[in-house]
Amino acid sequence: MTALSDPRRLIGNLLQLGAVESVDLGAVTSRLRVGAFGCPAGRPRRRLPPPRCPPMAGERTLAIEAASGTFDACSVGESAVRSAWARMLGGGVIAVVALSPAAAQEAMTTRQREALSPREANRTVQHDLLSVLKPITKIDSGMLRQLRGVGLTTKAFGTEFDGVCRRDAVTLWYAATQAAAKPEDAPLHPYSLEAQAWFHVIHLPRKASTRTRTDEGIWRSQCASLGTNEETEWFAAKNARIAVQGALMMEAAVEAVRSGTLRPEPCPNISDAKSTCEEAILAGGSITKIDSVEACSSEAGSLCYVVDLASSTKLTIKGRAPESALVPSAITSIAVEQYIIVT
Using CA atoms, how far apart are residues 252 and 130, in angstroms rounded to an integer? Predict the structure, then answer.
């Protein structure tokens, strides 16, 4: 196998030849029309004969590997692609590896995955990793002259709690490989990955999950559809249980403050000196404004959560709940402080 020197040139050639129906580099997929490969500009177009496939075989999937790893995938007729690529990529060098239809189009079992060769295992896992990430549309260094990291997110999926969805924010970190006169001109190389779970609450569950398998709710359609709405609010938490119980604690505490049954602790650190502690809590205490939820240390039988709101307000809420219960049986205290982020 020889390495392809310029993957972009390959994609350009495919487009010029009329062999590619669509290219989505973010999703790392391209589809080629079976038996409809064209010829370079200035030459007459000629249709290839239909591929000879075994009955019921359907399409075969071929992975195209470049020096930097798998960058493209094509669903094509195997006989068509082998002959067409040999003609249209005379100068370009690639490796074409045929995979079975079942491996490419259907979910593989544990037994099938464990039986893969090292090369197939590497290719399969890299493809799986890319398949769960949403495409990015722009790389931006923000306020820094030199890029430090690129943020990506996974597609949304369900959790063990009905009405609670999750996605993971992944940061790909970069560092300069050598100095340059200007930071933005220094060559960069990726070196690490970091992930953070984010949650969206459609409706708060009131009971602990009784699911015996953690994957039962993953493919819930109400979560998968969230990826189409960029206005959806997400907040960070270590796991789904902390996200749910922290939100329930905040909801109960805000309601207790509103009804007058819970008096907040003194709050010297609020931005509006004319506001009361109660007003500061009621103004920000909404699930749609949550930025993050964290559990804090507490005594046995007690609960403690810190809820960050709208990047400006932090609530520290303490209460009690029976063991394994989600909903607190009592809220014992709430404290509020506000802050200003200086950039």
Answer: 40
